[in-house]
Amino acid sequence: QVQMVESGGGLVQAGGSLRLSCEVSGLSVEVNDMGWFRQAPGKEREGISCLSFTGRTVYVESVKGRFTISRDNTENTLSLQMNSLKPEDTAMYYCAPAVCTLGSPISPRDFFTWGQGTQVTVSL
Q1: pLDDT tens digits, one per residue of 22-33
Q2: Which pLDDT value is given to residue 94?
Q3: How far apart are the first and last CA of the chain?
Q4: Predicted local confidence at residue 102, as pLDDT
Q5: Which of 52, 117, 120, 122 fits a disulfide with 92 by CB distance 3.0 to 4.6 angstroms?
Q6: Which residues make Cβ contacts (< 8 Å) with residue 60, sequence separation at least 6?
Q7: Which of 92, 99, 106, 101 has its CA nearest to residue 48?
Q8: Separation between Cα atoms, residue 100 and residue 121, nearest integer Å
Q9: Strands 91-99 and 107-108
Q10: Which residues pair with 123 in a beta bridge?
Q11: 69-124 pLDDT per residue, tens
C-alpha cells in the first residue's frame, strides 16, 4: 500500500522560505515519477512540480525559479524547497506519484490514496 506523509508546512511571511518533506512508503521514489500538488481554498488541486525517475524536473510557471524539488533515495523521501513565498502560495500541499512529462500538466497517478497534506500559509 502506497502511503505519503507530508510535513514542514507552517505560517511564514511573504518573502520567506519553507522546506516541505514527504515520507513515502510502499513505493520507491528512486524509480517512480513523483510530484508536489497543492490545493488552495475554493480551488482544485493542481500539480506544481514533479521529478521523474530519470531526474528530470518540471515546474509550473507560478513557482519556477522559487521552488526546488528533490529526493533522497536512501530515505525514500521527496522534498520541496520553497523560497520567496507569496500569499498566493497559501494552500494545502501534497506529494504523490505523478505523471511527469515536459509540456504536459503534472498529474497524479491513480493507484494511491492522498495523504493528509501539510498546510502552508503565507501572510503579507
Answers
A1: 999 999 999 999
A2: 98
A3: 40
A4: 87
A5: 117
A6: 46, 47, 48, 49, 106
A7: 106
A8: 26
A9: antiparallel
A10: 13
A11: 999 999 999 999 999 999 999 999 999 999 999 889 999 998 889 999 999 999 99
Of 86, 111, 93, 112, the closest CA to residue 22 belongs to 93
Q: Which residues of 5-21 are buried (b: 16+ CB within 10 A; e: fewer)?
A: ebbbbeebeeeeebebb
**Three-state secondary-structure class, residue 79:** strand
pLDDT (average), residues 60-65:
97
**Contacts of 117 by beta carbon, 8 Å cutoff, 6+ apart:** 6, 9, 39, 92, 93, 94
The DSSP secondary structure of 29-75, one letter per residue, reads: TTSS-EEEEEE-TTS--EEEEEE-TTS-EEE-TTTTTTEEEEEETTT
- Secondary structure of residue 111 in the 3-state scheme: coil
Instruction: Find cell 503579507 and name the residue.
Output: 124
The single-letter code of the amino acid at 87 is P
Cα separation of 117 and 70, whole Å? 17
